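Help wanted!
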Amino acid sequence: MAIETEARWVPIAVSCDILDGTVIPARLPTGPIAVWRSASGSLYANGDRCPHRGMRLSQGFVRGETLSCIYHGWRFGADGACQKIPAHPKVSPPKTINCGPLPVTEANGVVWGAATSPVDAPDQFVGHDALRSLVVAASTDAIASACEGEWVGEAIAVTLGGQNTILLLNPYGPAEVLVIALVPRGLTAPDLVRVSTALEALRRSAEAVGEAA
Amino acid sequence: MILYDYILSPSCYKLRLLASLLDVPLELRAVDFHPGREHKGAALLALNPAGCLPILVDGDLVLTESAAILAYLAAQSGPNWLADGDPQAIALQQQWLSFSHRLAEALGGARLVEMLHFDGDLEALQSDGIAALRELEAALFTRRIAGGTFLVGDMPSIADIACFPYVALAPDGSISLDPYPSIRLWMRALRSLPGFIEMPGIHRLHELAPDPFAKDLS
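Answered by r_m:
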């Protein structure tokens, strides 16, 4: 069961929220992760914990093709291996120092992560692109019932702001869910704002449902 | 210009920050806010009867509200940072300046309880703080749809500087900033501005400085 959970793509972020040369915090069911895009645009993920002192690597910074810890500057490459320990500039870090790279991929403007490599590609949503993510302090059931949407596999299909919207869900806990909304490609700016506003309203209703329950 | 300053105060920092961005020299007078409560002493109460910081003294002029001081600095040395002429921009700037007081009360309040053990209802302050962060995130996302990065118009303004410090220091009040991607991008844009300065809890973007190990790794 554990393996089944881990070898599964989970929606963790919106692609355009991770600029080249930046790192962000995200979560898998197995725990917090750091997701970063190198200067050349390659996307990587690893455990959100520096092997040195346990600092969150998502608080660190990206330089070129490496991720550095904000605490003592230990620097990690695409394979997770430590390349540099600034306090010991002449030392070649041993291969055993590694921040634990994780599988990550992008589709429909969504970043998907997994604890171990899934066999299949993540779900495809033809003609849709990610709009934005938001964290809702309610259960997935409360979200589904608040929006009167329809379950499509592990996602919810719903009309929001007049648009066919798909909600991808990444439960952080029993009453905390990362929601990533996908909307039809090619909408106008005012349409996008309407969906975003409807998402805010949906969050208020879902959290009210959760409180009433 | 003399700024009565406390290094850990987000309201004082926003003035040091704008002054640095505009390259305006400020004479800093360090006030023993904690634990000395010097701002409640006779000398500073004479300057500001409200008993709080910051206080800016410029000749005969004494200003005690950070939004007013931001406007004063910008009007003198950085008119681009002040909305002018366009009624909508003027109104929006005022709206965000007022909003910054909500941030100060909620996020700043939670921070004072957590960090300096002030009295306060931590849970209520955190809940108000999260509501304000959600509002800011939604507004900044709308700005991104329109191709904007900052709160008002195409350029950073005193509205951004007024809101930035309390947002950036929200984790001091045990409020996570992880759920807010648009806020993260906005803070990054502000921290990338030439002349940006740090305060304890808000560090600079190290990647903007030259790589000290560029030679070793190449």
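OP: Thanks! One thing I noticed: Chain B has two domains: 2-80, 82-191.
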